[in-house]
Amino acid sequence: MYETTLQELGLSINESKVYEALLSLGSSSIEQMAIKSKVHRRNIYDVLSKLLEKGLISEMFVHNRKEYRAIHPSRLLDLILEKENKLQIILPELEKRFGHYEEEETAYMYKGINGFKQYLQDILDVGETAYFIGAKAFWLDQRLQHFLPKFERERKKRGIKFMHIFDYEVKEQRPEILKLVGKPYKFLPKDYSSQTSIDFFGDRIVTFVGVKPGQLDEEPIQFVMRSRRLADGYRKFFEFMWDKLPFDY
User: Fold this and answer.
1) What share of the chain is helix, strand, coil (3-state, %, to 5)?
2) Average pLDDT for the chain
């Protein structure tokens, strides 16, 4: 009944069958186990050896013959904790090795509304402050109305901060976005609006074209570049713009 779960916890198929059989049988002989578990007797001995090694069963002599009994299932939790402790010991060294290679710099494209949803998922996965230049409030696109509330809940749960510099038209045409994203935000001067937008977070720089306040293209396209060095440069540009623009709440 629970063979799949037991296998996910690290037991083999036959180990799962024999252990679950012993939970039902109590003290049992090899013959009884083979019948109950449907594991061939020639395989039982190897399975019992491994279960004994994992501390999941005990061995005893009853009337001059060996019998076996399952240890309390809480022992499964102990096995998981033991594996976690082993991982914690080597994790610092693994992380050190991970940091030795330079982050890969790549470029790719997302297309369509599902591609846009993947861009939103990237924001959650990266988990760092997101910056927006020439923001258009296109998150209010009708095709995202069921997806966005879940995204917003998860974004706030993970503590991901937003820094928006909106196009001037947004505060007149789609002011509801301001309440959704929350402060702080600023606006570009009226003469500097365009049909492009740039977002960046972590090592991602995402460029949009053909976007309008509150609306994506019919088949939206996002050009994505992954480069920590480039993203750090964009953050410097953003800081300069942010310092020069006034608050306009």
Assistant:
1) 50, 20, 30
2) 88
